[in-house]
Amino acid sequence: MPEDLVLPIVPSIMREFAGAFPRASVRLRSSVTRKLKKELAQGTVDIILTTEPYDTGTGECLHRAPLRWFAAKDSAVFTARPLPIAYERECIFMPLVVRALDAAGIPWEMPYLADDWRDMTTFVSAGLAVQANMAHIKKPGWAEVPGTAGLPALPDFGVFLHVRDGAPDLALQMAGFVRDEYDVMAPQFLKPAAG
Question: How far is CA 191 from CA 23, 50, 60, 62, in A?
């Protein structure tokens, strides 16, 4: 699954699954959606979670959320022009954000390009850049950029579950735990957008 989805959902899933299947061996791998879908097609993984545009996503949509702009709390970095943005180099959101900024006529720069999600969060948390991500992904120390900042509206994305055709029963069981956890978490902070 994409690294930004691991917390807070996965620890509960792993705890419940390990309790039900204590002898099962699970490999958790964080990567970008494009790579995960390729691995699923090659049959090297049994189930994946992806983040994809809601309107064109594939798989079973477990959650729908708008993309929102985030910056460090008490930071006004979102007023800078060119607007500094930070992304992991293969993030699915980055091309969409760049197109939206270009279409809105907002000059931008990417002085911070990370090789993984943890590195990228450092730049945003330090107040050096903004980032757009799914609304429920906000990290400690981040705040949503106010709507009055004039940054462009962005589309909804979904969290999609994919299960490999012919996946073993244990993988199907894991997929059930994933669905159940998203259902449990929805009232707290993952409530799907209407429509």
Answer: 33, 17, 16, 10
CATH 3.40.190.10 fits 3-64+157-190, yes or no: yes
pTM of the model: 0.85
- Distance from C-alpha of 188 to C-alpha of 181, rounded to nearest angstrom: 11
Nearest to 70 by CA among 82, 89, 86, 54: 86
Backbone angles phi, psi at 59, to 5 degrees: 90, -165
103-143 tens-digit pLDDT = 999 999 999 877 777 778 889 999 999 999 988 776 789 99
Enumerate long-range contacts of 122-127, CB under 8 Å, 24 or more apart: 123/86, 124/70, 124/71, 124/72, 124/86, 125/72, 126/72, 127/71, 127/72, 127/74, 127/75, 127/77
Length of the chain counted residue by residue: 195
3-state secondary structure of 120: helix
State the number of CA atoms in the 13 A half-sphere of 2 facing the CB: 22
**Architecture of the domain whose range is 65-154:** 3-Layer(aba) Sandwich (3.40)
Report domain extents, the chain: 3-64+157-190, 65-154
